[in-house]
Amino acid sequence: MVIYKKNVGGLVKEDKRLKLRLDSTAELLNGVEMPRLGLGVWNAKEGPETENAVLTALKAGYRSIDTASMYGNEAAVGRAVRASGIPREQIFVTTKVWNNDQGYDSTIKACRASLDRLGLDYVDLYLIHWPVEGKSKETYKALEDLYAQGLAKAIGVSNFDIAQLDELMGSCRIKPMVNQVEINPLHTQKKLFSFCRTMGIQLEAWRPLMYGKLDLPLLEELAVKYGKSPAQIVIRWHLQLGIVAIPKSVNEERIRENANVFDFELEPEDMLRIDALNKNYSTG
């Protein structure tokens, strides 16, 4: 994002991308600050695998952990958060209500169960995991009430397309603050990206690294050019677009590597070249 600031001599160009750091945040509609880079724990096993991954991330400087009731590892995430020694208010924890629990009363119950497993008094972000026909509106009403009660500091959705967001916003009291969807160079979702930006909804990318399918000639070329790995190139692409990214890993070296993306900047032409890789191909 390029902005212009007033100065004595006129307008001065300032590139905000250069200011990105591991502790950089995106401001949500309600003023909550959401870290731009986090750790996803989908498919990580409950127990030491998840705990070690979360502790490694937190020690490396991450301050956002994304889990879900369906992942089956909320308890391990909570144990790691508490064991880290980092004040609770400095860690951004996301979880989600699963499809089978949707509906007003069952969503309230599901959120409280997630909090019990996490061992936390609140989550920073609570999401509808997937849109369920006929249930999204009453499920979201429950999220609004959980937000009003302080059990979730921010609320939103996951995997909603433009039509589903439009329908939901036609009846909700509080606009969704986040939409977590699959976004990566092979699945850029530009129309959804534009819509969410216009509506002030923060886009968050799950599976940003395309399930490890990074052996694309362009990414390998850019990795050499910038002295980075293909994964680091892709994460930096997300961040420069203003998309929150939550790459998943349980490998200590990769967790640290994924965070080492704040000492370089992709040139505008390279951003466009990565955009052009899009095939509307979803790995999920």
Relevant terms:
TIM Barrel, 10 helices, 17% strand, alpha/beta, 284 residues, 38% helix, eight-stranded parallel β-sheet, two-stranded antiparallel sheet
The biggest beta sheet is recorded as: 8 strands, parallel
Helix proportion of residues, in percent? 25-40%
Structural class: alpha/beta
CA-atom Rg in angstroms: 19 Å
Give the low-pLDDT segments. Answer: 1-18
Strand fraction: 15-25%
What value does the average pLDDT take?
94
Give the ordered list of helices and strands. EEEEEHEHEHEHEHEHEHHEHH
Shape: globular
Give the tally of structural domains: 1
N-to-C span:
29 Å
Please state the second-level CATH architecture: Alpha-Beta Barrel
Biggest β-sheet: strands ordered side by side in the sheet: 5-6-7-8-9-10-11-12
Number of contiguous helices = 10
CATH fold-level label = TIM Barrel
The CATH homologous superfamily: NADP-dependent oxidoreductase domain
Quickly name the level 1 CATH class: Alpha Beta
Pfam family, one: Aldo_ket_red
Domain NADP-dependent oxidoreductase: 37-278
Keywords: NADP, Oxidoreductase
Binding site for substrate: 129
